[in-house]
Amino acid sequence: MVAPEVIKAAQSGDRDALITLLREIENHVYRTAYYILNNEQDAMDAAQEALIRIYTKINSYEEKAQFKTWVQRIVTNLCIDKFRRAKPTVSIEQHDLSFTDHKTVEDEVMSSYIAQDIRDAIYKLPEHHRSVVVLRYLQDFSYNEIAESLDLPINTVKSYLFRARQQLQTILREYKKPSGDAVRG
Fold first, then answer.
1. Which of 12, 40, 64, 75 gives a 20 to 30 Å CA spacing to 83?
2. Sign of the torsion formed by the C-alpha atoms of 110, 114, 120 and 123
3. How many C-beta atoms lie closer than 10 Å to residue 82's C-beta?
């Protein structure tokens, strides 16, 4: 993620190092926020707030934890707080489709539906399950990194992931069931 010397330089007041650090993590921060909040605008707001918090709190980072787990803890906690107080909204951009040369229109539409079904299913999970799913499967964190980021025992992380996978299977099975003559979309 970020080189240790860049982190140290940022902590010692090197403005260029701090800007480099923030630029290196901004996509990871946004992606986590998006998958937790399931809304582009809310994710952008949360990511910006997280980057500001990282900017102002960089000196509180200690090397006891990996930098990426420290960052993820900040982002996840902000998103959970935002999720708790948010009212559901819909982003128009979520419904845009972009087509590539190697796929047919039908392939793109089906891929879009599948991706949206997965995002919707993740969003339906309880927030503690959603957080571990996002960190494990979308951010590729290890069990230990998730436990560290969320300040949970590793067995709790494993339990949450197990239950979340079961819930996702149930939710996604519901999407597959034909509902009479209804046409998807």
1. 64
2. negative
3. 18
